[in-house]
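step: validate -> pass
step: tokenize input -> pass
step: predict -> running
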Amino acid sequence: MVAKLESERAQALQKARDTETQWQEEVNEVTTKQAEKLAEVQHHLDVAIVSLRDRPERPEHLPATARVDCKDANGAELARSHAEFLERYAAAAAIQDAGLEACYAAFDGTVK
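step: predict -> pass
step: emit ->
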């Protein structure tokens, strides 16, 4: 009787360890993918910030009215500080998105 209980306990313990190992491997894979995405976002941000160095800064005195020849808002004449803000804002959104994706992937991988 005691031997049977010990055997069942050992089997349950091994099953729990196997499950833990499987979950840890899945979470490690998700974490690696998230780190790769974060590195990609950071690289894109670094390249964008460097490319914005040639943009002019915002003039101190802006006209009271909008220019008549401004036909559309495509960002071509965006001041450096505003463009940097938007690039950083987009990078922050991409980081949030990568985190949410990793969270869903980790949850889906461990809860089946």
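step: describe -> The two ends are 34 Å apart (CA to CA).
step: cleanup -> pass
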